[in-house]
């Protein structure tokens, strides 16, 4: 069953509902007081609403929602049935029919017809509660999280009959542990009676846990969503008691901010002062006093406060040379290698013998500590990206003025923390992207106004943490990339055949091709292009990815995804012949053994395998790396489905060997220049394994396939 | 020995409970075979705890055989040391 | 002995959407148009030795509504998770559903991934 098939089912269901509605309405006209008929009509609109919502027909969904409300009021006797009401409902059904089955759908004519009908419905129902705007929020994605750990203490005491509602407390605790890292665990088994006295269908266990997570408390509430009201669940934010490890240190503040916080000056006033400051180079405090925005005493107080804060920060800080930190990190890397040797030895020990168990347990514990250790060191190297973002304010204003544009820079998530080296290395690429947004994205004020936009353009820099990655976005609300021009340029350059179909994503990806848009062509493209290939290379060196989204007339978003740490990754070890390769765990979607009939060769696309109803390209790694393999048939070996930049491919390997933390050793490009390998790692037994660069590999495969 | 069904859980916990009591009555060592079990639920975990206690009190032992990695993890969550 | 997820809703669109969304679970979906038909189908399945892993139940249906179905179902089966399907205009039904023995709920319209998320809170 595909989505289009679901739509077909909906269309035929809607047809039936409409027929039923019409006959019910005719009957209602004859028996105006018949409650049963009113009920049936109500139910029809109710069903129509639910089904249209499922297939994403929002206009019909919203409209039938209003009709449902109207009928609900009729049902409750609030509104009497008369001819004009029946007319209105019949008219509404006509509109729905037109919207579903004719060309009129979504035209201006149909919209104005809907508005007229809604107006009439409103005359019956009166002002409706304005809930619709808020609804979007709930289904929309959760807000990006700040890069600060939260600590939560969760006490979960389940009702003794909790099993009787299909709920497994263990599953809930498992889910909870996917939200964050477990710090302390206490399982209360006091309530558990003796074996022969217990009722095994009752629940006797309860938990008291502290977890550490980057997620907000909502995520934890979600886990307990279905059990909260009948069981005793308390969730307490205990971040404060961990603040020694948290990031509660006072921040240095500017004088303007202090006055703003105290409510002495307004934001608009501060903006004006800052503008004046930029052009006159007078002290901020002096300007504020001269403009009469605050008294001299206010400014003096604020200056003192600023001093105090500075001292507090100095008292709490030690300066350390970053080289020393790097040394510690390297040593930790050696510890991790030593640990994986121990793990290998432990794995060979007999599971049923006590010593084997004990050793493994001890190693689990050690593993947790090293991870924590590593996180702590990494967090020392982490600094907020805010200052790096701030430095672009000036750049944006100056470049905008030069080009006769009015552009505001918005900074979001400035307190998101990144590795210091990463921040240094993304500064140039960021500048490239911002310059592109200013030069080619944002239009001149006249053009913007003509397009119905605010005269001032908006460039947003945004940073946030998500799922172990850092995301940095550069957004503009300019004219977007002109796909038609990208297309003709691609044809010109021989990347695309004249009549070849190309998806939006594919066209946009050309912007990253080296030399795709040279400086003299840029204005033609009226979009991006300058140095985007350079940007991409820079980001990939940091093991990150770049993604560009653009909507013509509305703007462009470039999203950079970077790993939190540079030196250590979680990897899956796989074997191919006598070689071991490492696949970054974050890229793996699933591994599977396809059936022979699931493997096909598709003209122009090469070998494909069926995975969850879609076909993904198959990469025979042994072929690619020119080595020997035990299994050359996908249905005999294993296929690992990986994902990069929305593209999934299947990798044929011999076997999975297990996962472990991998310390990356840089290859300095001399072993291989393949884009498919990002580095090497030394395994516990001293063997070297190459780390597969999924991003590069996916691109290589796509290149090979499009060259076919 | 008790061989657990692959879908052991609260729906079958009564039989499992009865079986353990029965086995503990007549044996000094009871072996519970987890092979083929992909996951357990809370009812299974607490029954294992209770039977461990009962066995110890009677100077007997309960041994868990072929416990898959994930089930071990689940047991750990429930405070069972394995 | 097979396992099924039973979806009970009078709208075929909802039924096929649920089936579509739950493909990833690998558990086959059985459909019924109302509570009465669902009870009948479940009886037939259990007589064959098959079992219901979970039920996904609309509240508002002709013949036998969801709440009545849940009450009846719970007479013989305490432990199988049941999820109630509602729309936001009938959220009070969630409470009625829970009182009758429902395990969870989801509000229509939903994205396939949302439904899958809710289902995976109960069965794996």
What does this structure look like?
The complex is a heterotrimer of chains A (708), B (82) and C (124). Chain A has 708 residues and is α+β, with helices and mostly antiparallel strands. In chain A, 46% of the residues lie in helices and 21% in strands. Chain A is built from 24 helices and 22 strands. In chain A, the strands form five sheets. Chain A has a six-stranded mixed β-sheet with strand order 14-18-19-17-16-15. In chain A, strands 6-8-9-11-10 form a five-stranded mixed β-sheet. A five-stranded mixed β-sheet of chain A has the order 20-12-13-22-21. Chain A is globular and about 90 Å long. Mean pLDDT of chain A is 80; it is low at 129-146, 244-250, 518-530 and 668-672. Chain B is α/β, with parallel strands linked by helices and 82 residues long. Chain B has helices at 13-26, 42-57, 69-77; strands at 2-3, 29-33, 61-65. A three-stranded parallel β-sheet of chain B has the order 1-2-3. In chain B, strand 1, helix 1 (13-26) and strand 2 (29-33) form a beta-alpha-beta unit. In chain B, helix 1 (13-26) packs parallel to helix 2. The longest helix of chain B is centred in the middle third of the chain and has 16 residues, at 42-57. The radius of gyration of chain B is 12 Å and the shape is globular. Chain B starts with a strand and ends in a 5-residue tail after the last helix. Chain C is of the alpha/beta class and 124 residues long. Chain C has five helices and five strands; from the N terminus they run βαβαβαβαβα. A five-stranded parallel β-sheet of chain C has the order 2-1-3-4-5, sandwiched between helices. In chain C, helix 4 links the parallel strand 4 and strand 5 (104-108). In chain C, helix 1 packs across helix 5, helix 2 packs parallel to helix 3 (66-76) and helix 3 (66-76) runs parallel beside helix 4. The model of chain C has no long low-confidence stretch (mean pLDDT 90). Chain B binds chain C through residues 9-11, 39, and chain C through 79-80, 124.
């Amino acid at each position: 069953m595909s989505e289009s098939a679901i739509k077909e089912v909906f269309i035929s269901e809607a047809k039936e509902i409409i027929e039923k509605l019409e006959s019910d309405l005719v009957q209602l006209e004859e028996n105006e007081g018949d409650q049963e008929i009113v009920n049936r009509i109500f139910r029809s609109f109710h069903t129509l609403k639910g089904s249209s919502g499922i297939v994403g027909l929002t206009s019909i969904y919203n409209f039938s929602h209003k009709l449902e409300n109207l009928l609900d009021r009729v049902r409750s006797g609030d509104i009497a049935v008369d001819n004009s009401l029946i007319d209105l409902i019949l008219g509404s059904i006509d509109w729905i029919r037109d919207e579903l089955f004719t060309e009129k759908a979504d035209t201006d004519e149909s919209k104005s017809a809907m508005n007229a009908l809604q107006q009439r419905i409103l005359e019956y129902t009166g002002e409706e509660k304005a809930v619709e705007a808020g609804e979007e929020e709930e289904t929309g994605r959760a807000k990006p999280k700040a890069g600060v750990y939260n600590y939560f203490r969760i006490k979960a005491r389940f009702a003794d009959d909790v099993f009787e509602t299909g709920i497994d407390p263990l599953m809930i605790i498992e889910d909870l542990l996917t939200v964050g890292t477990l710090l302390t665990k206490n399982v209360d088994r006091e309530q558990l009676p003796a074996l022969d006295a217990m009722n095994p269908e009752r629940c006797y266990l309860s938990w008291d846990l502290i977890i550490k997570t980057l997620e907000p408390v909502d995520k934890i509430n979600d886990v307990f969503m279905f059990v909260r009201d009948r069981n005793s669940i308390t969730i307490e934010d205990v971040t404060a008691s961990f603040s020694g490890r948290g990031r509660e240190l006072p921040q240095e503040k500017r004088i303007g901010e202090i006055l703003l916080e105290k409510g002495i000056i307004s934001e608009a006033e501060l903006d004006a002062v800052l503008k004046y400051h930029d052009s006159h180079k007078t002290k901020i405090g002096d300007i504020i006093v001269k403009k009469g925005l605050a008294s001299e005493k206010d400014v003096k107080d604020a200056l003192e406060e600023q001093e105090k804060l500075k001292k507090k920060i100095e008292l709490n800080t030690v300066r350390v040379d970053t080289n020393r930190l790097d040394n510690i990190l390297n040593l930790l890397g050696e510890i991790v290698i030593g640990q994986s040797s121990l793990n290998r030895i432990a794995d060979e020990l007999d599971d049923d013998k006590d010593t084997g168990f004990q050793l493994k347990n001890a190693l689990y514990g050690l593993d947790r500590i090293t991870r924590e250790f590593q996180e702590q060191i990494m967090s020392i190297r982490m600094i907020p990206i805010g200052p790096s973002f701030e430095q672009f304010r000036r750049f944006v204003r100056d470049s905008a003025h030069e080009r006769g544009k009015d552009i505001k820079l918005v900074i979001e998530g400035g307190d998101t923390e990144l590795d210091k080296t990463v921040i240094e290395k993304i500064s140039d690429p960021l500048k490239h992207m911002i310059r592109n947004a200013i030069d080619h994205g944002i239009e001149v004020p006249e053009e913007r106004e003509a397009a119905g936009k605010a005269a001032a353009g908006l460039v947003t820099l945004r940073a946030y943490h998500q799922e172990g990655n850092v995301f940095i976005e550069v957004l503009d609300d300019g004219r977007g990339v002109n796909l038609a021009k990208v297309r003709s340029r691609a044809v010109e350059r021989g990347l695309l055949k004249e009549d070849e179909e190309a998806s939006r994503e594919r066209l946009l990806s050309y912007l990253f091709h080296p030399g795709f848009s040279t400086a003299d062509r840029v204005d033609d493209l009226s979009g991006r292009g300058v140095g985007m290939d350079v940007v991409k290379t820079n980001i990939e060196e940091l093991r990150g990815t770049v993604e560009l989204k653009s909507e013509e007339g509305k703007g462009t978003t470039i999203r950079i995804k970077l790993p939190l740490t540079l030196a250590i990754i979680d990897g899956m070890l796989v074997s191919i012949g006598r070689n071991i390769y490492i696949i970054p765990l974050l890229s793996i979607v699933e591994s599977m053994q396809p059936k022979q009939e699931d493997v096909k060769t598709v003209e122009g696309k090469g070998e494909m395998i069926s995975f969850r109803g879609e076909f993904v390209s198959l990469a025979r790694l042994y072929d690619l790396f020119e080595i020997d393999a035990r299994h050359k048939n996908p249905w005999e070996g294993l296929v690992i489905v990986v994902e990069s930049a929305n593209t999934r491919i299947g990798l044929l390997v011999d076997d999975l060997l297990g996962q472990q933390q991998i310390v990356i050793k840089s290859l300095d490009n001399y072993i291989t220049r393949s884009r498919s390998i990002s580095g090497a790692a030394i395994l516990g037994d001293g063997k070297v394994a190459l780390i597969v660069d999924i991003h590069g590999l996916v691109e290589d495969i796509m290149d090979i396939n499009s060259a076919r | 020995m008790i061989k657990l069904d692959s879908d052991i859980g609260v729906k079958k916990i009564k039989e499992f409970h009865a079986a353990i009591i029965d086995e503990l009555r007549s044996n000094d060592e009871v072996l519970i075979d987890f092979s083929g079990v992909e996951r357990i639920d809370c009812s299974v975990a607490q029954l294992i705890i209770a039977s461990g206690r009962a066995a110890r009190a009677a100077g007997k032992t309960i041994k868990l055989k072929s416990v898959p990695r994930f089930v071990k993890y689940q047991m750990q969550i429930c405070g069972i040391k394995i | 002995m097979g396992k099924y997820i039973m979806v009970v809703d009078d709208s075929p669109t909802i039924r096929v959407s649920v089936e579509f969304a739950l493909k990833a679970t690998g558990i086959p979906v059985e459909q019924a148009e109302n509570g009465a038909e669902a009870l009948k189908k479940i009886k037939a399945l259990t007589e064959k030795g098959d079992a219901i892993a979970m039920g996904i139940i609309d509240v508002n249906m002709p013949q036998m509504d969801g709440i009545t179905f849940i009450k009846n179902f719970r007479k013989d089966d305490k432990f199988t998770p049941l999820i109630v399907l509602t729309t936001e205009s009938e959220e009070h039904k969630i409470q009625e559903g829970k009182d009758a023995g429902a395990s969870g709920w989801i509000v229509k319209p939903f994205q396939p991934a949302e439904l899958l998320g809710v289902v995976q809170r109960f069965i794996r």
